Amino acid sequence: MVFKKFEELLALVDPKANKKTVALVRAEDDHALGAVAEVVEKGLIDAILIGNREAIKETAAHLGVNVRDEQILDAQTPEEAATEGVKLIREGKADFLMKGKLETAQMLRPVVNKETGLGKGKVMSHVALTEIPSYHKLVITTDGGMLPYPTLEQKKQIIENAVEVLHRLGYENPKVCVLAASETPNPKMPESMDGVALKEMNQKGELTGCIVEGPISFDLAMVKERSVTKGYESPCAGDADILLVPNVHAGNMLGKSLTEMAHAKMAGLIMGAKCPIVLTSRGSSEEEKFNSLILACIVSNK
Amino acid sequence: MVFKKFEELLALVDPKANKKTVALVRAEDDHALGAVAEVVEKGLIDAILIGNREAIKETAAHLGVNVRDEQILDAQTPEEAATEGVKLIREGKADFLMKGKLETAQMLRPVVNKETGLGKGKVMSHVALTEIPSYHKLVITTDGGMLPYPTLEQKKQIIENAVEVLHRLGYENPKVCVLAASETPNPKMPESMDGVALKEMNQKGELTGCIVEGPISFDLAMVKERSVTKGYESPCAGDADILLVPNVHAGNMLGKSLTEMAHAKMAGLIMGAKCPIVLTSRGSSEEEKFNSLILACIVSNK
């Protein structure tokens, strides 16, 4: 089973049986609050809005959205708001977090706190689920920059985080491609040898719930015809579900070229903590924010 | 002045005043010979076909193209063929080289020979001129993998090679973007600091004939709207002519995502030697080979 478009994911959201709650941290942000309000108004989720009560009300009025007093959890500083958000998750009062008007570092500090945070002893990584018109299904690119230069062990965990997302969507054995410039292992290129090592881990049963191919180039991972021309055989060839990029620069260039030049749509989550964290930016489109919220909704526990 | 499409480049080819000659090394290759024959039949260039005479004739017969005996320069081995090609350039009998049925390393060995080769004491790099439907003009991505992990000095020369291509096309001051994950200089990321250094070299007059911006992310380099949203100002923002990638992996992913997912067309050349070298692969489209030959034709001296 695979999904071709984001709109198909909506069928996995079942607010009648299992309505999720997002905690929006520093909700006095017109972009984030607008996105949350849209999903709330559709009856798909509930929201707790953390931040300065007056500022949140002003933002809501400005956006023309309804906010009830009891939805708001007062917090004066970004630090306080983030800490309250983490508490709501730990107490089971919210299912996932979304970043509002604060810095990413401020948002994540209480999340990674060893005693009171949401860590699971694993790396946190950014999973970008992407709908590319010229590809036959949704595909994840990861890590989107939480770990600028991941080690081999971190790459393993980055894959696990992405696989977890697809498992929650119902995939059984997603196909993971460890990207490099070429499919020929090259000892002079660590990106290449990490592909060899990750594939071996998968074959030895140390990295499970997926099929790993690597190293593999983008065209072989994404275009069946190219693998046929090259005589390259792999169950993952031309059919990748997850693309692991070697570092933040390659990842950013690939992601941006897909969204800006190939008209791709994106939904992004931070995975690896006890709940997903939605972390969209001012520059994100309304659609991206909506899709990210829906994805977090499906991926989070209840 | 800028070019929007490859077809506009044809106007720069003037076979009546200045007909160029390609030396096809190991011409007994149906893909390469087919591409050369097409350009020859259009009257745009002349060709010298180096390789095994009988094999070349057989290949030509198989393709249904005319080859005259006097066009063929007999050479039995790949090494001999490449050496003959280099000699033709040094003697002024051919204007540029194209790789046929031999390995890239075999092709380049006599080219880089210090005494008898075509070196200019600078790095050789791969320049990929790209036509992306969603971008408003042709744009170069470089280096396509000649230097897997270029140093700062090598990056400077990679830029110079790409700038030379655009100067030959008539550009005065092409806009060069040194790509990285973010536009904010980050001392922990060499890709980022190389961007700072290359921009400084440009400002100090050590890297001329272009405007360099860096570090800069792909979206800021390619989409004006993104730079406006971010309040980011640069003459290069949203208007890049040349994209410098940090290494072979990022470059390959970016290039392949453009051609495979954003329907981009490509023309590729190796620059840095005394003549351009066309080096297309079996997997390249007919159009790519044609465009690469036309580009080499324009870029080569006479």
What does this molecule look like?
2 copies of one chain form a homodimer. Chain A has 302 residues and is α/β, with parallel strands linked by helices. Chain A has helices at residues 30-41, 53-63, 78-90, 104-112, 152-168, 190-203, 218-222, 224-230, 248-261, 286-299, and strands spanning 20-25, 45-51, 72-74, 96-99, 125-131, 139-142, 175-179, 211-216, 242-244, 265-271, 277-278. In chain A, strand 5 (125-131) and strand 6 form a beta hairpin. The longest helix of chain A is centred in the middle third of the chain and has 17 residues, at 152-168. Chain A binds chain B through residues 132, 134-135, 145, 148, 179-182, 188-189, 191, 217-219, 222-223, 226, 229-230, 245-246, 248-254, 256-264, 282-283, and chain B through 132, 134-135, 145, 148, 179-182, 188-189, 191, 217-219, 222-223, 226, 229-230, 245-246, 248-254, 256-264, 282-283.
Beta strands of chain A, count: 11
Could you say which structural class the secondary elements and strand pairing of chain A correspond to?
A: alpha/beta
Taking Cα atoms only, what radius of gyration of chain A do you get, to the nearest Å?
A: 20 Å
Largest contact between chains: A-B, 40 and 40 residues
Report strand order across the widest sheet of chain A.
Answer: 8-7-9-6-5-10
What's the order of the H and E elements of chain A?
EHEHEHEHEEHEHEHHEHEEH
Largest sheet of chain A: 6 strands, mixed
The number of helical runs of chain A is: 10
- Measured between the Cα atoms of the first and last residue of chain A, the distance is 23 Å
What percent of residues of chain A are in strands? 15-25%
- What percent of residues of chain A adopt helix (DSSP H or I)? 25-40%
Question: What average pLDDT do the residues of chain A reach?
Answer: 96
Extract low-pLDDT stretches of chain A: none
